[in-house]
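DM from R.C. (forwarded with permission)

"hey, sorry to bug you on a friday — could you get me a structure for this? deadline for the figure draft is monday and I only need the backbone to look sensible"
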Amino acid sequence: MQAALLERLQAERAAKRPVALLTRLADGAQHLFPLDAVPEALAAEAQSALHHDTARNVTLDGEAWFIHPHNPPLRLIVVGAVHIAQALVPMAAPLGFEVIVVDPRRAFATEERFAGVTLITEWTDDAMLALAPDTRTAVVTLTHDPKLDDPALDVALKSHAFYIGALGSRRTHAKRVARLAELGHNEHAMARIHSPVGLDLGGRTAPEIAVSVMAEIVAARHGAGLGAPRPQAPVDTATRLGVRMGAA
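My reply, with the result:
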């Protein structure tokens, strides 16, 4: 590998941007995707390798290529150091996720309750801006407190996070959507939110809900149908007025 190409690759990895190293086996010529212009078919194979996080050999137009994806680590940002989070966090690490718990309530966000986990006790919007969710990031809000969840969702919706989930009933979510609309998010953007969060497994306990959330995140990451957000009712005028008037 040429020194200049290695430097570019290292810069992309340091910036935690997904990049694929494409090597033509016949002569060793190399390119970085998506930084370098490559044929459309090769670009599609590189994108697929990044999505599935697996290296592959491909032959296109009679040329053999080796595609080596370099993805940033998977991350799970959990907003709310609550009981569900305590059950969810241990499930995420074996699945390859770096877990970050965000909660300005220091009585909840403690090492005793979340041993070995990155804890951030800044206000949720400041924490989310610093964490900068990307295409390898899942965001779950669990506090049930609009003062904490809404700022985090506001940032998440402006990001490329592959999964955004929020705890709460459909009625609670309708009010949440109205508040987010007041912040300038349109229905297309807010349709990205999985709420009620998690697959409908019928569970009620914190561990059962955590299982449903983690299963939905895995499904979303792999593009399975179960990982798609469920359709939500549109925000109506009455709901908007209720938010403006401070309705619960």
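R.C.: lifesaver. Confidence is low (pLDDT under 50) at residues 237-248.
me: no worries. Residues 31 and 37 are 8 Å apart (CA to CA).
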